[in-house]
């Protein structure tokens, strides 16, 4: 576990901003790797505390190192290359020599580890006693303690019961819902297997017939509100986008039959020359069309694409 803790710590020291906080989960405090790692954290943060959450099991050695107010990466620039050399590697040498770690720090860490060890030992002894000496009286006491703790927890955090019906049928009944990607199960396994063995022209003809029957209507035209902005009052909106998706294979915002046909078309797309004599693929662009017209527009573009490919195959 020590290499993992080391990597987590170096990652935090590399990405945290000055004043940032970091929390590390540990199990043992008095091993060589743990002592060096905690001392590194003490050098990197204004405050370092060790605590065990209330909801953590009493019988295990789980503790959390809470580090507050990061001093900043610039404090470690001279030593960061040396620290990164050991990133992901197991080393037989300690991060710090024993003489470089102050005695006050080692004494305080020892008292900290002793405190949590004593608590853990008492819990384990109590659990063993309850397990080996089961008596009705102890079971009654244990049950009473559990009930008292649960009562105090409810009072302290003001927990309320959540309704079994989160939204309610009344609201759901008037909420527009429409499955844009229903699943269609057509043909047997043998039919789908034969489809994979079709020639290019047979595949195109079958695809052409399938596109002709694709249809999808938007059932909420009356509930659709279009917001129009005056050019002078148009809000200034800066669009920030991430890495574009190269190919959409599944979407809740597109009819599944249209998407399936669209994914099949590229395998038979005809490379044609535009007026600028630049080779380009016929694609389906629906970015400028409202829902009530985009479906027919998609179909017409794909029909044109497949039809041209069929024409090219004819001798």
From TrEMBL:
Assigned keywords, A-Z: Methyltransferase, S-adenosyl-L-methionine, Transferase
Enzyme class: transferase
Domain of life, per lineage: Eukaryota
EC number: 2.1.1.296
Domain named Adrift-type SAM-dependent 2'-O-MTase: residues: 1-72
PROSITE patterns registered for this protein in UniProt: SAM_MT_ADRIFT (PS51614)
GO terms of molecular function: methyltransferase cap1 activity; methyltransferase cap2 activity
GO biological process: 7-methylguanosine mRNA capping; methylation
Residues at the active site: 25
Name this protein carries in UniProt: Cap-specific mRNA (nucleoside-2'-O-)-methyltransferase 2
Organism: Cuerna arida
